[in-house]
Amino acid sequence: MKVKQISIFIENKSGRLAEVTRLLGEKGVNIQALSLADTSDFGILRLLVDNTDVALETLKEGGFTVNKTEVVAVEVPDQPGGLCEILQVLDKTEVNVEYMYAFVARNVGNAVIIFRFDEIDSAIETLQKEGVNLLTREQLYGL
Amino acid sequence: MIWDDEFETMPRETLQSLQAKRLQQVAERVYALVPFYKQQFDKAGVKPEKIKSLDDLQRLPFTLKQDMRDNYPYGLFARPLDQIVRIHASSGTTGKPTVVGYTRRDIENWTELMARSFVAAGANRGDILHNAYGYGLFTGGLGAHYGAERIGASVIPMSGGNTKKQLMIMRDFGSTLLTCTPSYSLYLAEAAAEEGFDIRSFKLRIGILGAEPWSEKMRNEIEAKVGIKAVDIYGLSEILGPGVGIECIEAQSGLHIWEDHFIPEIIDPITGDLLPEGEQGELVITTITKEGIPLIRYRTRDITRIIAEPCICGRTHRRLERMCGRSDDMLIIRGVNVYPSQIESVLMNIDGVEPHYMLIVDREGTLDTLEVQVEVNEQTFSDEIKILQGLSRRIEKEIKDLLGISCRTRLVEPKTIARSEGKAQRVIDNRPK
Questions:
Q1: Residue B367 to residue B26: CA distance in whole angstroms
Q2: CATH topology of domain A2-69
């Protein structure tokens, strides 16, 4: 139920984001979702890609600092109150959300929220117990 | 163990009166024998016979490295060449080298001071010395060689280079002492590991390391990786060569400077004013026994402070704190003296942080600003902003704690700060001149 995400350290200067996408494009890596967290000096680019290992290797060779983390992909009904239900489930537990971002996956049809938890295993357990639909890597990429 | 009990443990009062007597003699000697000093003394309006006590020393003018260059090669020698038995020279990375000459007695004194230094570092006659300091114009090799022979140790005159052979000799000959630069000792450990053996299984027990600045953290690393006690030695060719100061094995804290031969002072590198005992500043040394090329108030450009507290080893000679940098590198930021090496030591103490950094000094309005650029690597990187910001704040706090000035950390991508083999460019000063 865990999905691998890569994070890239990016300095706030022109052309760095373009460089990341250029490197991945050249290797045929497709970006499924992305989020950029930024401060005044630097940003952290988080990506879900179809080939994590190739992406990681390519970016390291390109001189970027990259790491791999595990996140949870949650399918959320595309209707008012959909996200609220899930957050209420999490609220009942001790699990903290470090960050989250959303996108709409064509092959899923619904909204997908990517969560990074401080304690991923107990988060998964809780969500599953409450009947929340967690997506596997295969479902996410429509494999 | 103490090599020369009489002099090394001389009561301070006796030592000081010996210094005063020798100071007076050297002032007279250089005035009579070295035209440069006659000129300098006259310009400062000081007659050598007026130099009677240690307090009079500060009336004498400084000698700079440039003065040695201006008098290249033999201009500052106080003896004719027929009395000079040895000539050494500094590397001279910029321009002409600085040249020094030794009389027979100078060589004898140097040998004795190196013998004292070896014994202070824990060496004795049963030791086998692997001397990897360079032999040649550089003073390191021969200086260590003569001193170790004097105490009766067996000296292997390896000199530098050919690391594989060094390791073979060191292992097969059962060397117990190592003299080289601190960085080379670590390199030897790595090279040994590459060859498939562990240098810690050798008989080495003490490393007497010097000729470049190093930190306490590096000492710990050397002691762990090379499996030795690592002792700091200080010297510079202008003054003598190695053996001006040495850490004793008992304390491993601060370098005893041999005060019966040298008078140390600490000055403010900008104003040239003498600083109170215990304050940090530029080390100035007067050689009071040298015959070949005595130097008056030579500005070493090394930054340290004098530790006057008595040492547990029983030696009465005061100690110099580990050299913290060169006055040439000093920055003044909001009135505070800052050495890039101090920032480096903060970064070195934070796990995972690269020792590559850049300091950007600028001015906003009337206020100086300092930005410390640090590379993010896989060890320090996190996908969470708060962890990276925590790292920045920790660096800022530790710099503030150490130096008392606020700075701003900027995390940058790996390998974006220029690497250099030699003297790295660490500072960009954008302040209007």
A1: 47
A2: VC0802-like (3.30.2130)
